[in-house]
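[#protein-structures] MJ: dropping DUF4230 domain-containing protein here for a structure pass
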Amino acid sequence: MNFSKFKIVLWSLGILMVVFLGFFIYQMTKSQNINSMMIVLMLILGLILGGVIAFLASSKLGSSPVVITESSHTIAESMRKVFKVVSAEGHFNEIYNYEETTKIFNFIPSKKKALVIVQAKVLVGYDFEKFKWEIDEVNKTVKLINFPAPQILSTETDYKYYNIEEQFFNLFSKDDLAKIQQNGKQQVIEAAKKSHLPEVAAEQMRTLLTELLAGKNFFLENASVISESKNRIDYQSPLIKDHS
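AK: finished. structure tokens for DUF4230 domain-containing protein:
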């Protein structure tokens, strides 16, 4: 039964009750019995209460959908040309435990803690602006002079909170949540540094440069510096972004 049919039934029952009550009142007024008049008053009160309940029920069922209005304003702070190449991608799930204990009035211990699952995608690559090389047109060679460390170009993180426990006088604030997210993200970065991502990124870059130069009949000289760069990783990119 849809809402329109339900309203018709409610109104029909209401009309029938009014007719019945009117007839009953007419019969009661012919007698001088006080008890009969009390019954009439009780019926009137019951009718009013039923009408209120029916009105509230119909209003609840017929409530209009919630209207959400959103607006945003994006301001581009700066733009510049870059030449950064992603050569490795890693996905991480980090379990981060946060626990904080304080004392109320300097003697009542109060604790709050949370378990956070940090899901992250880390992109590692190279900034070509930091490359230095020498080109020998005669011998068709490109010698690498300086090859930078692989760089974390982007981290996309998502936070899921579990087992949040807090007390009335020791609640989580916005600063606490921001601190938890920052620490959880830092744990992911440290895990990415210790993973095989730098090695994968270095090997991919070595393959890319070798094939690109081979297409122009050039030979890549001193390619070992690429493999040496995998032993370190740089994390100073302005392109870091979060999705919380």
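MJ: nice. Strands lie at 84-104, 108-127, 132-136, 141-146, 151-165, 219-221.
AK: one more thing. Residues 84-231 form one domain.
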